[in-house]
Amino acid sequence: MTRPLLGAGGREECVMALIVQKFGGTSVKDAERLNNVADIVTSTYKEGNDVVVVVSAQGDTTDDLIAKAAEINDRPSKREMDMLLSSGEQISAALLAMAIERMGYPVVSLLGWQAGFDTSSDYGNARIKRVDPSRIKQELDKRRIVVVTGFQGVNRYGDMTTLGRGGSDTSAVALAAALNADLCQIYTDVDGVYTADPNKVPTAKKIDQITYDEMLELATLGAKVLHNRSVEMAKRYHVNLEVLSSFTGHPGTIVKEVVKNMEKSHVSGVAKDKDVARLALVGLQDRPGVAFKIFSLLANEKINVDIILQSIGRDESKDISFTVARGDAEEAKKILAAHRIEKLPIVNDQFELCGLITIKDIEKSTKYPNSAKDQKGRLLCGAPQDDHEFTSAFASDMMSDVLAYGQGQSLLLTGLLNQQV
Fold this sequence. Notes:
Layout: E1 5-6, E2 12-13, E3 18-23, H1 31-46, E4 50-55, H2 61-72, H3 78-102, E5 107-110, E6 117-119, E7 128-131, H4 134-141, E8 145-149, E9 152-154, E10 160-162, H5 167-179, E11 183-188, E12 193-194, E13 206-207, E14 209-211, H6 212-220, H7 228-237, E15 241-245, E16 253-256, E17 270-273, E18 276-285, H8 290-300, E19 308-310, E20 317-325, H9 329-339, E21 346-347, H10 359-363, E22 372-373, E23 379-381, H11 387-397, E24 410-413
Parallel strand pairs: 3-4, 3-11, 4-8, 5-8, 11-15, 14-16
Antiparallel strand pairs: 1-2, 6-7, 9-10, 12-13, 15-16, 17-24, 18-20, 18-21, 19-20, 22-23
Helix pairs in contact: 1-3, 2-3, 5-7, 6-7
């Protein structure tokens, strides 16, 4: 087995290497696409490579399973939900293995626990504690293609667990790290990472190379092509990543530590996330330790807090606003309400995300006719009349006076970390 060689155009090409390939739900949604994936996998195998494949559940399978659970119990336990949802990836893995088997290639499918995924016991959002790839190595030594279920593992009690949003990406990168793979390819329905969502901004351009840090910023604030946990892991363990399409066969985007043009570009891309909620705590006592108490409560319940905005103290009080995943909003509200740190007032009970706006924009708030104000006339949220026009202008003019903005979404420009905002 040799390491990646430099191919045409200066791109790295793996020859007789160990390659991990991950295929998302759209790539395996039906028989036709499963056969297409089987062609990609076997073509890689025929070149002499060892191949490990990680698959997601087919199409809308996960949503369908959630709906089925709701028909039986509107408040099922997280443990039983993990038992149910983990079946989606098992179906994909078995069907793909059958397709490869029909083509005459040696193949075996493995569940997460069989592939060595040991996780925490946080049902629905477990974290990978370790990966023991010994079973996979045994199968590779037999020259078999190994198909692994993504998104899942097993905890110390022997229970099935799921890894939460983007879990299959994380599974693939974790396997690549544990196996010391030469390349981890993430196949999706787009042929790489773009400067903006090409469905919203027709002039968006595909990025050939991007750094881990830039990709992490984009993934954290809504770019769905990769999940931020997988990017963090790739950076930590120096996993070579490539994002590419399972449909076009075109070269994708390489995610790496350093890219040649990193000093030439101030803005790498624009991303937005509609699946976020904002909570605002108004009139807190302005003294040390209050913010620590708030975020410790949420951290203890495994609720991730993203953007945090704290006002300047006045009249011995201050306000704190922060964002969480929309699915965690109600739970976060219950936690804070139950503890009632200094009778925390919570505004914006509808959990509608309000954009973070610079002082310059607040002074010019007449630009945003949709803006809302609190009892003291302070601007809480606002949105331009046409979100598409705003995003397009943002991407083309590279405005630097707004870090994040939106209504029902969060928007970020990467590459501005060292600039005054």
